[in-house]
Amino acid sequence: MIAMPLHKSVAIAAIAFALAAASTLTLNDYFVYVVTIGAIFATLAVAFDVLLGFTGYLSLAHGALYGLGAYACALLTSRYGLSFWVALPLCGALTGAAGALIALLAFRTRGLYFAVLTLGIGLIGHQLFLVLPNLTGGVGGFVGIPGPEQPGWLAVRATTYYALLALTLLLVTFICALLFVRSRLGAECLAVREDLTLAQALGIRVSSARLAAFTFSAVFAGLAGALFASISSFIAPESFTVLGTGFQLVALVVVGGMGTLWGPILGAALLTALPEGLRVAATLSLLAYGVLLLIFIIFAPQGIASLISRTARRIGGGGREP
Amino acid sequence: MSLLQIRDIEARFGGVVALGGVSLDVPEGMIFGLIGPNGAGKTTLINMVSGLIAPTAGHIVFDGACGPWPIAQTVRRGIVRTFQQTRAFLGLSVRENLRIATVHSPDPGSIDELIEACNLGDVLDRTARDLPYATLRHLGIALALALKPRLLLLDEPAVGLTAGEVERLGALVRRWNAAGITVLLVEHNVRFLMDVSQRVAVLDRGRLLFEGTPEQCQAEQKVIDVYLGRRAADADD
Can you tell me which residues the record assigns to a coiled coil (chain B) (predicted)? Predict the structure, then answer.
């Protein structure tokens, strides 16, 4: 695998962002909403890929971290009257800190136990959203979350504005993730993923590398949650379950292509558009996720990203043949 | 003074004594060979010097400082090892492997030297998993060399190599040694070890049986009885 130069990756991401942003000006409200949700899930998936794809750890706690960001934003903006723009970084910091704590606990275990331990944390998180009605609204959900303040100079529909915010968050997350995985820490994360013993023997700072990866993914999961809460105006625990969001994330990243960053964006786009396009109920969409996950793990474990790059290489390689 | 002093190192796993109080001195700048039959404790010794496992008793003195230390610290002090079963980051390209190994290197230019020193120039963009066996072994050693060790621990680097590849490996080990790296070499291939090493120690059942020059070692009756003789007998079968 030859990595594309950084500036080229950023340029392609910026072009894709511009196209998606332009589309939100013309699409109807329903499709703009689909783009918004797709971008939020893509943000989650990119953050998740830093941990799963680049560091090799499967966390099932990320649905709860996403929820933590959402409820924190709901509380800060509605009960404490903070502006969304003040609440957003606070939510990122909070979930980052929570992620670091979870990581310190979870990395005491290895392999399967790591996944099981984070599963436990994901379940606890979801239960806390249910049993703390004073903070979260309990099973009835949190109602009346103020939307992000729209600047007067930006004369677009509110739905378009939300989509632009979600796409911007996705772009920022993608660039930050790109910088992270190409940094020294990112190289150390790869070493941890590939061979923990060898990494130790080469003096790689195993603990700090995977702590950084987990914290990074938690921060951006929290930011995605905060934005989701603010633009939805209503959130409920069912959006942050282990088998809902937690499992969907795994599906998005695996179907899109682990360890590529751009693959998970495609995965999110496909898996958000698919159930919407088919107009199926939420339970059926989870079924579709499960089936797709099975198909990809068996037939294309490297995901859509690898199918695309293999095809591109074949076309490119074929073109160069005399 | 010796760069590495091993003092009364003992390793017990439950009731089994893998090493029963071994002392060795490895002088700076030397290629020091360690042989012994299977189960003699050679790899255990390497594991302890490199900090992968802690000895149950004894000391390791490196460059005047008294250990043992955990593996992260031995690496920082300049002791780096390779593995018997070659370890490399198999899913990554050779280039990415070297980038990871040099991530803490103060001198990024050293990657080029390393590529040259380990003959990896032609395979930089190949995935490690797809490399020929001998090249993969070179990569494994290159990863260790990337850390610019003062003491390189080579655990059976010649296993599975053809005669020609062993010869090339010998030339490389001498070259790194000439560049100032002290080498502690554990090896089953006696001819290779005797050829490359300036000094040799023989372990048998967790104890030091003999230490001396390769010539003395090959002439020593008890070494022949325990190890070389057994080998010769095996070869006759």
Answer: none
The SS3 call for residue B132 is: coil
Whether residue B103 and residue A2 make contact (CB cut-off 8 A), yes or no, is no
- Reported as a single tens digit per residue, the pLDDT across A116-143 is 999 999 999 999 999 998 899 988 899 9
CA A219 vs CA A55, A105, A299, B200: distances in Å = 16, 17, 33, 55
Strand locations in chain A (E): 142-143, 234-235
Type of residue at B179: A
Chain A CB contacts of B146 below 8 Å: 202
> Which residue in A has a C-alpha nearest to residue B51's C-alpha?
A201
Burial of B235 (C-beta count, 10 Å sphere; 0-12/13-18/19+)? exposed
Contacts of residue B103 in chain A, CB cutoff 8 Å?
A: 184, 187-188, 191, 204
Residue B100 token pair? 């990871």
Q: Provide the Cα torsion A270, A272, A276, A280; round to 10°.
A: 100
Round to whole Å and give the CA distance between B207 and B10. Answer: 10
CA atoms within 13 A on the CB side of B224: 6
Mean pLDDT for the stretch of residues A177-206: 92
Asked if the interface predicted TM-score (ipTM) of this complex is over 0.95, the answer is: no
Residue A269 Cα to chain centre, angstroms: 12
Q: In whole angstroms, how far apart are CA A36 and each of A39, A165, A224, A272?
A: 5, 8, 11, 10
pLDDT at B31: 95
**Residue B208, min C-alpha distance to chain A (Å):** 26
A204 chain-B contacts, CB cut-off 8 A: 100, 103
